[in-house]
């Protein structure tokens, strides 16, 4: 049901980054403070259509929804915003730090201090956080998301090919990319739809690829991401059984 999807979305944003849940709650508070009449939750969407959206699209839909606000929702949202601000000011992002450590290990393993890395996230706010985090630590970074026009997307792809080391993209931003000059893909957030994983890896696993493609899934222990992985593995097993294609290896 929609409440279940909503709870999963909130948990996914928390595991993605403090900034993702904080930014979503700030935008939700803005909507709650508008005097417009509340409408139904998730208008015009079936459950299947809702589940097929990526994380950012789900977040945008929920935030703008005009459903009847829960009692004390404004106060609860404000408390969450305060908690995210306190966390951001007092603690480093453990998931981002783990990514950084892995990237340093990757450089040593590949014996290439300039190795290129394609990072996928579900949320634009996490994209912004990672961009700043990596730039502050000496990495050259470019970003792609669904809000960019064709010319800007082409420019970013050219910069990644010629000079920048890291490309951080959402699924919408990564559509149509040909990045065979890069062979490392990091799924910083795990998508609900298993075919999105295939599409992400397919951005680099193309004709002209000269290396074995490396794909890494980032999962926080004891979080909803583990449940998402289980669901994805079950779906991929069905694909293997029905079509004889093994996508789990």
UniProtKB/TrEMBL annotation:
- Please report the stretch or stretches of sequence annotated as the Helicase C-terminal domain: 98-249
> What CDD domains does this protein's entry cite?
SF2_C_SNF (cd18793)
Q: Mention one GO molecular function.
A: hydrolase activity
Write down the InterPro entries for this protein, in alphabetical order: Helicase_C-like (IPR001650), P-loop_NTPase (IPR027417), SNF2/RAD54-like_C (IPR049730)
- Entry keyword annotation includes Ion transport: no
Keywords assigned by UniProt, alphabetized? Hydrolase
SMART domains per record: HELICc (SM00490)
Keyword Hydrolase on entry = yes
* Record SUPFAM superfamilies: P-loop containing nucleoside triphosphate hydrolases (SSF52540)
Q: What is this protein called?
A: Helicase C-terminal domain-containing protein
Source organism: marine sediment metagenome
């Amino acid at each position: 049901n929609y409440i279940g999807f909503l709870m999963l979305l909130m948990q996914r944003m928390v595991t993605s980054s403090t900034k993702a849940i904080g930014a979503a709650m700030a935008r939700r508070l803005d909507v709650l403070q508008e005097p417009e009449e509340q409408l139904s939750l998730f208008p015009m969407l079936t459950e299947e259509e809702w589940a097929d959206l990526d994380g950012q699209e789900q977040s945008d839909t929920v935030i703008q929804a005009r459903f009847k606000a829960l009692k004390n929702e404004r106060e609860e949202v404000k408390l969450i915003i305060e908690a995210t601000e306190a966390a951001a000011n007092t603690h480093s992002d453990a998931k981002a730090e783990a990514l950084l450590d892995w990237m340093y290990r990757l450089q040593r393993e590949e014996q290439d201090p300039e190795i290129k890395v394609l990072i996928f996230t579900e949320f634009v706010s996490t994209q912004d956080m990672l961009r700043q985090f990596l730039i502050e630590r000496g990495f050259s970074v470019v970003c792609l998301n669904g809000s960019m026009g064709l010319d800007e997307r082409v420019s970013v792809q050219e910069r990644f090919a010629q000079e920048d080391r890291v490309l951080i993209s959402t699924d919408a931003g990564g559509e149509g990319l040909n990045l065979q000059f890069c062979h490392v893909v990091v799924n910083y957030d795990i998508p609900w739809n298993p075919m999105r994983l295939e599409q992400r890896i397919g951005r680099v696993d193309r004709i002209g690829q000269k290396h074995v493609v490396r794909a890494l899934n980032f999962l926080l222990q004891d979080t909803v991401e583990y449940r998402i992985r289980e669901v994805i593995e079950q779906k991929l097993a069905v694909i293997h059984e029905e079509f004889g294609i093994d996508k789990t290896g």
